[in-house]
Amino acid sequence: MGLVAPSRRSTQMYGVPFPCERHWLTSTCNHQSDERDSAYSDHQTSYTMSVTSSVFNFRYENGRRYHAYAEGMYPVPNDEVEADRLELQHHAFRLTLDGKLHRAPIPQDIHNVLDIGCGTGIWSIEFADEHPSARVLGTDLSPIQPCSVPPNCEFLIDDFELDWIFHEEFDFIHTRALVAAVKDWNRFFSQAFTNLKPGGYLECQELTFPIKCMDPSVTDENSPLMKWSALFVEAAGKLGIDGTGPRHLGPKLRSAGFVDINAKTCKWPVGRWAKGDKFKLLGDLAYADLMDWLPSSSLGLFTRVLKWTQHEVEVFLAECRAEAKRKDRHYYADVLFWYARKPRNTTSVYSHEPVHDEEELELDDQNQTT
Ligand SMILES: C[S@@+](CC[C@H](N)C(=O)[O-])C[C@H]1O[C@@H](n2cnc3c(N)ncnc32)[C@H](O)[C@@H]1O
């Protein structure tokens, strides 16, 4: 899949042992230009040259830019519009956790951290800044991470659908917003389990489908937004992706061998209709996120899988945007925070029922203007 065969020679980047021969460094400062590559030592050049020749060969479709490495694997663009959306969404996740980057009870002085499907790398960078003891590795299909990063943070191009091959085990593995990416959560968790140290934690922070509405009369038939959500699930399903998957991770974590499984379902109201300052701000962020997620999530999927034309998708999304603006509708998204621990001793393991609690939303009566 994709890149030239990896070199087996010794690997040392920025003074940090390179974790795996199969991965490619994504330091965007180095690999845009072959001339700059020649300034590096031999082993660095071989990595940066292979990156230059393939992962930047982006594919353009319907006015959006898509990843080149493992082409077609992820149906969502990797352009600036999507990168801006991911950064905004990051703030919504942090606000949901009252400023925290994680829920798992990890120590402040944690060491090896892996962020799978890291996108723009914003979580990895902020985690590295806040945990100077940590060495944070972010991986993604797309080289869209900045070149100026903390010294304890690095990025690699990698496809998590392949076997995970890292030279070291991790204390903490984090993933976020992979609902449109993971095809097989069982395999994903089994690989995470294998690559964690005994006692290490996995955390998955996930948005999920379908979108929900507080108003009982709203259905897929009378709401373009509910219909969009159902169509997303249908189209993603045809690619082997379960849009509702993040709701059902407990048994999968358990069968992978994890214990102390914990889940919390939070809510993002779409717009300012929910009571409380925090939910009003979250509502603004979720609304802005949705406005960009509608085309990001649908253009590729609906044209490739449902065989709609670009025009048909855009007309339909205009109806969805109008629906999301309605003050008499109260849409929200469920946001799930799962974490689980790899047992310290795998010989005698008891895994209790997952702990799961759910946040409530209340309508703000002051806000009910149509
Ligand atoms: C919605 S973004 C989330 C990014 C980041 N976790 C965040 O929360 O900001 C999903 C990311 O998963 C990456 N991705 C999708 N499929 C992947 C795969 N098979 N291997 C590695 N990364 C993948 C995409 O390139 C994209 O950057």
Automatic annotation (TrEMBL):
Bias (Acidic residues) occurs at 356-370
Q: Where is this region: Disordered?
A: 350-370
Q: Does the keyword Ribosomal protein apply?
A: no
| Organism for this UniProt entry | Dothidotthia symphoricarpi CBS 119687
Q: Which UniProt keywords apply?
A: Methyltransferase, Transferase
Q: Which Pfam families match?
A: Methyltransf_23 (PF13489)
GO MF annotations in UniProt = methyltransferase activity
Gene3D superfamilies in the record: Vaccinia Virus protein VP39
Q: What is this protein called?
A: S-adenosyl-L-methionine-dependent methyltransferase
Q: Which GO terms describe its biological process?
A: methylation
Against InterPro entries, the record matches this protein to: SAM-dependent_MTases_sf (IPR029063)
